[in-house]
């Protein structure tokens, strides 16, 4: 994309805006800053905390053995407060944390917001550089900060006549802000390397290079000079690349809709700096902790699929090695549940173990995600080397998907214990969920060509299997969520999955008129406040793929509480833990890709 198309939407501030901090990062390392360009005002930034987080820093504690629960004779890691006091430990650990605060002091006191005037801040979206200036007690102060894109190094510069810079190192926590103040880490310094010792199992080491001398007081590093620059690297301090390389590779299309284009640019920026690392992202990225900083693998595709469409395959594929690393636990999980292949968890951490939950272990819609993403990479780029490298994920995923189907009455059905993607339908009413059935059918239909590349033949008779998968249940021309749903009046809050059957995948058996009718019906009769941020783009995708362009745009722009976007670009929600909800941004980018290509094609 052109530089002019990006910097047009640079974030600019002329006041302290505690609802809209700015985040810089590279997908594995990110820092969120206030309008001074530091984290000095952290006490008033409650919605989106001012954090310093890395994918590579996790706080560990020995996990406890938890007895599985059994559903229809199959073992699942379902928690039960009454019979297992250790479940909370296994949910919380390990977790990411915020290890540092960048603070400005005036005579040994943290700067006071009441003395800050004439704020000017700009986030250069094209290069990923934040420049800030402000008047403090009639003195001008300036800060500049950025993070390199090819390694984990933060660079900062302060110009000041009256303020001192300090780095405060905190003790890790799984909470939203990522730290606690009642315990202090031990800070060790040896030449240019600093080590934070938390306990006998956990520590963090990094390199620091500064233009100023400094002293360590307890857990705080205080620079001697007012004018100071420093580099802090989790690996090596060296010259690196800025964000412009990302934009030069991007193939995004500018359409004639200012609001959608702005949302596209800001969403790409936020998802790149938060969600393109070595692990699948948590739902708030590297901005703050939610759900104990665990990955939600059912959200990985929603966060990240756009990277394939916008020429950033490398940014996505770097997280695929994680799936290889958790193959042993995924094989074990499938076997314990009574299936073949790989059953990936829903909510997890670097170890790939289930976070105990009464929902996650029974979800299945994350299963095809890695297969679908690899299929998209192959069909769009013909990258045989990638599908060959990740062949174990492909074959293991397909083995699970097929073994999960039950042949009954000459139809392949989903009758085993499962929870449908919307998570609000009771377990005993989730058989044959429409969204999952069509997702299974679509990915398996696309597999023969890839099998031929990988093996020279098809491992399964995909045509026979997909032709026998039971069709979604209907009532009066309206698709229902599951076969357990009684009729069209039997509605459930949460994700409107019956409207997603033509979204990021396009079912060949779904009738387009019925799909549009279904979406019209649920929008009219369901509580839209129960929808999540990614639901609206997915409904828009289904409408788009049914030829309803204008209606699709209207749906993605619906003015409802979970379809709001902050000035800094984040999809947001009234929920305290979802003030920055990146799946909403990711789903919008998938929608924007399809919309822009359809609009361009219509002009030819």
Note poorly predicted spans.
Answer: none
Tell me the name of the CATH homologous superfamily of the domain at 12-57 and 97-233. Glycoside hydrolase, family 65, N-terminal domain
Shape: globular
How large is the count of helical segments?
A: 19
**End-to-end C-alpha gap:** 21 Å
Helix percentage: 25-40%
Structural classification: alpha+beta
CATH architecture of the domain at 12-57 and 97-233: Distorted Sandwich
In words, what does this structure look like?
With 604 residues, this protein is an alpha+beta fold. It has a domain at 12-57 and 97-233: Beta-galactosidase, Chain A, domain 5 (Distorted Sandwich). Helices cover 30% and strands 21% of the residues. The strands form ten sheets. It has a nine-stranded antiparallel β-sheet, with no helix packed on it. Strands 10-9-15-22-21 form a five-stranded antiparallel β-sheet, with no helix packed on it. Strand 26 and strand 27 form a beta hairpin. Helix 4 (258-275) packs across helix 19 (582-603). The protein is globular. It starts with a helix and ends with a helix. The model has no long low-confidence stretch (mean pLDDT 96).
